[in-house]
Design goal:
322 residues; alpha/beta; D-Maltodextrin-Binding Protein, domain 2; 2 domains; 10-stranded mixed beta sheet; 13 helices; 44% helix; globular; receptor; Bug_dom1; signal; BUG; Tripartite-type tricarboxylate transporter receptor subunit TctC
Length: 322
């Protein structure tokens, strides 16, 4: 009903005289859907964006966690939302371009049912273990796995995420068999690796950076092509002998596909101003991520390109939803 009423109002020109749609927006709080539980990388970056928009643009942006099925539940909510600009979602490579190739019969297509608004940041994936673990290097893990296949476990934020696939791709590259333990988000996986209930965790760097800085976690490697500027002491998987290994993830804001272009442009422009602020850059880097600004069209092209690219990666990895 709300969707029909809004569209009817637009058709009838029911805005104040002389006031454009972009100028009238927003007139109420905006809901930012976070497709993972509190405490993970997606949640952290979502709340940074929401806070900075509230502080600097005076919008009221409320982060709302809607976790499940590798982040695809939250994406589904955004797809079904009224295209008014008052419901957006923090998507990432995990749920938008990897999940659709792992979860069969998803009722949406990221390139058709959502519009890419603003690329927020990218981050390497990091392989970590507890600081009390017997594993001090990635080589230790590989040697132990070869001596005792299927006895070493690694946790991830869930099936169907880039992070899960980073672990599977590494298994293939190293020729080892370690057992995946999926969780419903980064935080529960983190608690179990700290407690020693799983041997390793594959995580976004933002999710792990706090525990790494506290000394409770030990980083073994990052999976990106180059070292992170936030944690340059962590070697890359490629440096450790696995040539051309490169898996990272990105985060960005999306709106339902039918959202008016004026609103899409307004959101993009205001978010882009926030991303250029030095305090925002520092806050994102402190979480282990890197801001990467681009136009909405450039971001949309990245989503389409990665969507096709990761179809082949998923098929080659043999990864399946458990």
């Amino acid at each position: 009903m709300f969707r029909r009423t809004f569209c009817s109002a637009l058709a009838a020109g029911a805005l104040a005289p002389g006031l454009s749609l972009a100028q009238a927006y927003p007139s109420k709080p905006i809901r930012l859907i976070v497709p993972f539980p509190p405490g993970g990388g997606t949640d952290i970056l979502s709340r940074l964006v929401a806070t900075k928009l509230t502080e600097h643009v005076k919008w009221t942006v409320v982060a709302d966690n809607r976790a499940g099925a590798g982040g695809t539940v939250g994406i589904g909510e955004a797809v079904r939302a009224a295209p008014t600009g008052y419901e957006m979602v923090m998507g990432q490579k995990d749920n938008l371009v990897v999940g659709p190739w792992l979860y069969k019969n998803l009722p949406w297509d990221p390139t058709r049912d959502l519009v890419a608004v603003s690329h927020i940041a990218y981050t390497p994936v990091v392989i970590v273990t507890s600081s009390t673990s017997r594993f001090r290097t990635l080589g230790d893990v590989v040697a132990a796995a070869r001596n005792a296949p299927d006895t070493i476990t690694y946790g991830s934020p869930g099936n169907g995420t880039t992070i899960h696939l980073a672990g599977e791709i590494f298994k293939t590259a190293a020729g080892i068999n370690i057992r995946h333990v999926p969780y419903k988000g980064s935080n529960p996986a983190m608690m179990d690796v700290l407690a020693g209930n799983v041997d390793l965790m594959v995580s976004s760097l933002p999710s792990a950076i706090g525990q790494l800085k506290s000394g409770k976690l030990r980083a073994l490697a990052v999976t990106s092509a180059k070292r992170s500027s936030t944690a340059p002491e962590i070697p890359t998987v490629a440096e450790l002998g696995y040539k051309d290994f490169d898996v990272s993830t990105w985060y960005g804001l999306f709106l339902p596909a039918a959202t008016p272009k004026e609103i899409v442009a307004t959101v993009h422009n205001e978010v882009d101003k926030v991303l250029a602020m030095p305090d925002m850059v520092a806050a994102v880097q402190a979480q282990g991520a890197e801001i990467q600004r681009m136009t909405a069209d450039q971001f949309g092209a990245l989503v389409k390109s990665d969507y096709q690219k990761w179809k082949g990666i998923v098929e080659a990895s043999g990864a399946k939803i458990e």
